[in-house]
Amino acid sequence: MEESPSVIRVHPDPLEPYAISPGWRAGGLIFLSGQAAIDEHGTLVGEGDFDAQLEQVFLNIDRVLAAAGSSRARIVKVTIYLTDMGNFPKIVEARKRYFSAPWPADTIVEVRSLALPGLMVEIDVIAAG
């Protein structure tokens, strides 16, 4: 019998005020909500500093994946949202720093803005459970 989908919980949960789950486990996969440069208390990290924001995004990804019993090494797909495609070279370097071969599948898009003013990057991931 297939396991029912289940929500992934973290405490404190900075997404709770927005009625968003940090992620879901379903069918052997883990689906994370987009992670941005917001710390566990909901405070924006690194305003105007792309590198600091990217570091916080990956801290958040690691935190939610750990709560799900998974890890960054099990990520199979990332979707990256940038407010400035001029940061694309930094994303290429970040892929090499935060992942290893075989590389996750990837989609990257430029967007006009993200959920909160000051956010420069958001990443959602799918990982094996």
Question: Which helices and strands appear, and what pairs or packs with what?
Answer:
Layout: E1 6-8, E2 23-26, E3 29-32, E4 35-36, H1 50-67, E5 75-82, H2 88-98, E6 105-110, E7 121-128
Parallel strand pairs: 5-6
Antiparallel strand pairs: 1-2, 2-3, 3-7, 4-7, 5-7
Structural description of this entry:
A hairpin with a 2-residue loop joins strand 2 and strand 3. With 129 residues, this protein is α+β, with helices and mostly antiparallel strands. It has two helices and seven strands; from the N terminus they run E-E-E-E-H-E-H-E-E. Strands 1, 2, 3, 4, 5, 6 and 7 form a seven-stranded mixed beta sheet that branches. It is 22% helix and 27% strand. It has a single domain (6-128), classed as 60s Ribosomal Protein L30, Chain: A (2-Layer Sandwich). The mean pLDDT is 96. It has helices at residues 50-67, 88-98; strands at 6-8, 23-26, 29-32, 35-36, 75-82, 105-110, 121-128. The chain is globular.
